[in-house]
Amino acid sequence: MIDIEIIGHINAAFGRCYPAEKYERWSTDVVSVGRTSQRNQMFSQPQRSWVINYEALDSGERDALLELFRRAHGALRTFKIADDDDYHCSVAECSITAAAGDTTTQLIKSYYPSETETWNEDRTCIRPSGVYSPSIYIDGAAKTEDTHFTLDDDTGIIDWSGGGAPNGAMAGGEVITADYQFYFQVRFDIDTYTDIRNVPDYWQYNGIRLVEDE
User: Of the spans 15-19, 33-37, 54-58, 103-107, which averages the highest pLDDT?
Assistant: First the structure.
């Protein structure tokens, strides 16, 4: 469940922050016997994390950041961010072939879809239509939200029972594509808040690690 939300990109939040570091972590289990080894992939997709620096926070910005940390109870609760490098999914990156009888479709994003080593990730935390209106298609024909389908922004699941397909179910073989924007669901990786007061009414807070949370 998404409890707290930052609306806006990381680079713009609170006016004076920027990502200092960004990580994508895979997990591989390596079993070695003599000169041979077996590698087992533990993650089907990377876990992302960001380290953010706030070089100069005025009183209002500092209060907003501290409020967010308190509302999250440190590393306990999750919230949403938009990553300037990865917040948009194009039609070429979201293509799902329906099975007969499907009444729902999970939005995905394919990374490097035209290359051999591609992978798909289910995308949740869809940016609502008031921020960026998603475009959804069946076999290239545009469908209208609340007329042909409903979209759960939290789960990224499209419900076609409103009329997107005959009798609200797919015949099978239809290709659903979408153009949309999304957030990442994250949490603080720390339980302690520490900032530095450099001059009156200005603070510095470095090394805030945000971890992608499934």
Answer: 103-107
Distance CA 19, CA 50 (A): 7
- Exposure string of 30-53, with b = 16+ CB inside 10 Å and e = fewer, is eeeeeeeeeeeeeeeeeebbbebe
Closest C-alpha to 177, from 69, 52, 92 = 92
**Three-state secondary structure call for residue 67:** helix
Tens-place pLDDT, residues 113-129: 988 889 999 999 999 88
**CA–CA separation, 78 vs 160, rounded Å?**
29
| Rounded Cα–Cα distance for residues 184 and 206 (Å) | 21
pTM: 0.83
Q: Is 172 exposed, middle or buried (0-12, 13-18, 19+ CB in 10 A)?
A: exposed
**Backbone angles phi and psi of 113, in degrees to 5:** -65, -25
Q: What residues have CB less than 8 Å from 123, skipping those under 6 apart?
A: 89, 94, 107, 108, 109, 156, 180, 182
Q: What is the mean pLDDT of the chain?
A: 85
Query: Residue 103: is its pLDDT beyond 70?
Result: yes
Backbone angles phi, psi at 64, to 5 degrees: -65, -40
Let me know how long the chain is.
Answer: 214
Tokens matching residue 167: 């009798």
The DSSP element (H or E) to which 70 belongs, if any, is helix 59-72
